[in-house]
Amino acid sequence: MSIKRRLIILIISTVVLASFFAALHGYRNSLEQLDDVFDEELITVSAFLSGFVNQSNGLPEKVDSEITYQIFVNNQLISSSMASPNAKMTLVNQGFDEVSFHGKRWRTYSSTSVNEGSNVTIMVAHPIQKRIDAAESILFATITPIVISIPLIAFLIIYIINRSLSTLITLSNEIKDKNTDDLTEIVIHQPPEELAPVIRRMNNLFLRLANAFDREKQLAANAAHELRTPISVLKLTAHNIQSEFAQQSLTPALISELNDNVSRMAHVIEQMISLYKYTPDQFIGKKTNENLRDIVQEVISKNYEMIAQNGQTISLEGDDAWVSGEHFALSTLFENILKNAIKYSGHSTEIKVTLAQDSLATTLTVEDSGAGIDEADYLKIFERFYRVQNAVTREKGSGLGLSIVKHICDLHSANIEASKSSLGGLKISILFHRIKEVSEGVM
């Protein structure tokens, strides 16, 4: 059963039951109050008849009266109404009683007094049914408007519930109508306060799922395209090795070529694994305060042998710079930038790393004195699997290094841009939001 139907049934049932119990309570109160009124009437009539006896000596024996009464003097009936029985209506000579005669139940009141030496007893009575009819009449007059208003109340309840649950119904229909491939956000104008966080969280979830699916689709498609070439080369190299081995003319050059191709494939796979590892979901809660200068020195030390082999020089300028991030991710970020400069700037070039900070941000800059790239490629180099076609060095690469750098920058809410270096080559600048330092550089 739907929430709407359950609410309608419960609320209308509650209204009906409340009306019923209110009517029942009113009926009982009416009976009690009418009993008091009718009892007061019996006492008043008895007093009236007592005064009438005192003033008259010749009372008719039978009186056609709406009031049922009997007057006894010294236990002798001297006057009564037409509706009264021949015998005493009640054996109680003083007070109220309930008796039966003429096939009805009666409420009686008796009073006894002494008048000129005679005992005068006056008995008056009301049929109990008269009291019940009066109470029912009052109840009917009271309950009729309530009964008539219940359909109107039910209509208002249904209308109010429909209006109140319209947003929830719309949300339910939106979700129900979505197919498995539809991850677009749900748009509901002016949702109630209780549903706004639900809609916002669901839309965030849809967005994250859409981004994840898009990332996986793009990565899978590009990876398949990227791995096709090294696999083909490996097959060709393996075929050449097999042929040379059969002819007993196998040379170390083929083995070296095979090793280079295997290394290149391993590098591509490693880069793709790194790219997959750093997702927003996996990155939450991993940030700590890191000294960017220590990370840069560590990465330069690890890659210094490669720099020396290329006849390159490298310099680091700047003091300690603290940022909020994840150590391994920041190491991967700088290592990819550094290797990109080492690989594409060429032999005997200069690489300069600068750390600068102000009250708002910390900036990491890596420049080289290589040939650089065209200005049109400044934004494209951060795309997955994009490789500059006019690079002078013609170095082979996977096109994933700088895309990983861009992804890690996004995880750290850092801005990255490429531009022309003052040394003549490429300049990569990353702007981190600065965190406050504490004494002695310890965070």
Verbal overview:
With 443 residues, the protein is of the alpha+beta class. The model is unreliable at 390-394 and 438-443 (pLDDT under 50). The chain has three domains: 3-157, Beta-Lactamase (2-Layer Sandwich); 180-277; 286-441, Histidine kinase-like ATPase, C-terminal domain (Heat Shock Protein 90), CATH 3.30.565. It is rod-shaped, with a radius of gyration of 51 Å. The chain has ten helices and 13 strands. The longest helix has 53 residues, at 3-55. It has a six-stranded mixed beta sheet with strand order 1-3-2-6-5-4. The chain has a five-stranded mixed beta sheet with strand order 8-10-11-13-12, covered by helices on one side.
Keywords:
about 450 residues; Beta-Lactamase; Heat Shock Protein 90; 6-stranded mixed beta sheet; 5-stranded mixed beta sheet; 10 helices; disordered C terminus
Secondary-structure topology with pairs:
Layout: H1 3-55, E1 62-63, E2 68-73, E3 76-81, E4 95-101, E5 104-115, E6 118-127, H2 128-164, H3 166-177, H4 196-246, H5 252-277, H6 280-283, E7 288-291, H7 292-302, H8 304-309, E8 313-317, E9 322-325, H9 327-345, E10 350-357, E11 361-368, H10 401-411, E12 415-420, E13 426-433
Parallel strand pairs: 1-3, 8-10
Antiparallel strand pairs: 2-3, 2-6, 4-5, 5-6, 7-9, 10-11, 11-13, 12-13
Helix pairs in contact: 1-2, 4-5, 7-9, 9-10
Q: State the CATH architecture of the largest domain.
A: 2-Layer Sandwich
Q: From the helix content, strand content and strand pairing, which structural class follows?
A: alpha+beta
N/C terminus separation: 57 Å
Order of secondary-structure elements: HEEEEEEHHHHHEHHEEHEEHEE
Mean pLDDT: 81
